[in-house]
Every structure is written in structure tokens, then in C-alpha cells.
TrEMBL record:
Mg(2+) 1 binds at D301, E314. It is found in: Cytoplasm. Its EC number is 6.3.2.4. It comes from Kitasatospora kifunensis (Streptomyces kifunensis). Residues 143-347 form the ATP-grasp domain. Cell wall formation. Mg(2+) 2 binds at E314, N316. GO terms for cellular component: cytosol. The keyword Metal-binding applies. The keyword Mitochondrion does not apply. This is D-alanine--D-alanine ligase. The active site is at E22, S187, S325.
Amino acid sequence: MAEDPDDHRIRVVVLFGGRSGEHDVSCASAAGIITHLDRARYAVWPVRITTAGEWVPGPEDLPTGLYGPDDLKRLLPGRSTPGWVGLADALPILATADVVVPALHGPYGEDGTLQGLLETLGVPYVGNGVFASAAGMDKDITKRLLASAGLPVAASVLLHGPAGQLPAPEREWLGLPAFVKPARAGSSLGVTRVERWAELDAALAGARTFDSKVLVEEAVLGREVDVAVLEHPDGRLEVGPALEIRVGGGQPFFDYAAKYQDQETRFEIPARLPEPVSERLREMAVEVFEALGCSGLLRIDFLLRDGTDPVVNEVNTFPGFTAASQYPRIWAEAGLPYAELLDVLIATALADGRAKVPVPVAATR
């Protein structure tokens, strides 16, 4: 961005899209963020990474407006126009930002790869750092770290490679039903609930289309509750009200269809829980945040075994960010509207000491 000495707004690059299977989810998150960023405070520059890995810069100072994911795709269309660039050409764009919002989900964006690039460039960014992002993306690593910190997680067996199978003793130990999950994917992509062991081979094949590491996990029967943690610029951690997910429409669990397509999925905020359970969830959410070395934000997905005993299911180091997504809705219920939530996240990123050393890049402001 060319520097205007009279423009004192914070220059925000919103980076979204990406090569993962969650490209469309990322575009939806970015549309919500771009719509809600206050143009009196921020000059917004959207940059889309296409599924082919093209970097497509949009207008340097995108006007205020109501944007949807399709609007962003039309505005930043990829190879069909001369605007697309490679990563090397995109580096000066990132270097001109005061702060980057990496609104990417899944591999190639939420897994520490992008965070490492931004730290190398010395550019502040919203959300979790390299380690927490990488650890949070890998469900097996997450489980190991949390278990070592004394936090309850579901029993699971890790299978490596294209041919790994689940021996009979481990099947007996896990029991049925069971879940098969890619270790490093999000939005429930490749996740299957197995009711009979005869279904296991097909479930493993589906999971392996997303990752060579696959978890076979016990089914924790109980309520599904999400808890959000937000870091403030002074380092204070705030925990939002618990949100309970109620799946309808015949969905067997909160899978991709239930998350993004089924109109019968409902969120109840605050969840109707006994106060001791709510208090334990708040305590555990902070423990998870600290055990993974998180910063900025985190959404923790809990399962309540028998309706009362919390078990950490998964974590999301950059959760969905549409206005209807769990994380912004939790904070709206807590009295922090979407636009103000973004203000806190950006202020925290600018106060963070992770990315303060600039790297020379051929660019001018």
C-alpha cells in the first residue's frame, strides 16, 4: 500500500482461501471479517490464495460493504485475470501490512506454515503462533500434549501410512461405535462414525484421502459443547459462555453437512449446564490454551461424557469466523459484538512480541 501521511488507519491484510479442503469455509470466514472491519480504523487489503496456490491481491483499500464469499471470489478470481501473482510477488504485499489476519483453515494456513512465513517477514498477525498452530492442527499431537498436562481426552489409536490396520485387541479396547478421523484436517472432513467393524476399511480409506495419519477414536457419548478463549492486549484471558451444539436433520454427528449445510443444526448459548460443570469447562479451557502455548484465540470442543464429565475433543486455533459461526456468536452473547471482537484480536496481535524484527523486502509503503 502506498503510504498516505494523512491516513493513520491500521493497514490490515486479510489472507484467505488456501489449498486445503476448507477453501470455501475460509472464504466465508474472510467475508465476515472484511464486512465487519471498521473502515474508520482499518484500511483493508484482501488477498486470496486459490486452490491452485495462486496469490490474488484485491483492492488495497477495499470499501466498506456487506461482502459474501462469492463476492470475494469474483473480486479476486485467479488466473482468469492478470492480477494473480506467485508467493514471491506477494511477499511485498504482506510486508506492507501493519497486521495480517490469516483467515485460513486447515493445512497450508492453520498449521503453522503461514505463521512461520509471517514471523520470518516480521509481520504481526492475529492468532496463534507456529507451535500452537502446528500442534493444534494435528489431533494426535494435541491429545498427547493435553494428556501430559493431565487433561482428559478420548482414547484413540494412531495409524500411519496407507496400509495401517486396527488389530483386534485395540478394536476391543476402543469398542463401538468409534470415530475414524484424519489427524490433520478440519471441518470434520473425512470423519466417519463406525457402527460395525465391517465399516472400518471404508472409513479408513475416506480419512486417508485427507491425511496419511489417521485416528481411530472411542465414541464419547454425551453432549457436545464449545468454549471460546480470547486473549486481550494486556495478556488477560477471557472465557466466553459455553455453547451447546444440537444436531438435527438426521445427521449422525456434527459433520461437515451439519456444520455448513443443515438448517436444523442449532446452537444454544449459554448452554444449560449445572454451574459446577460450567465452571470446570471454563477452567479446562484456560488449561488447554496454556498447555498448547496458544495466543490470541482458541475454540475448544468438549464432549460431556454422560452429560457431566468434560472430555477435550478437538481444538481450533483459527475457528470459523462467519457471523453465524460459534466463536463470534459466543462473544456476541458475552456482550462483545463482531466488530469489537476484531478490534481486540488486532490490538492483541499488535501488542504481541512474536513478530517484531522486519526482514527487508522489495516494497515501499
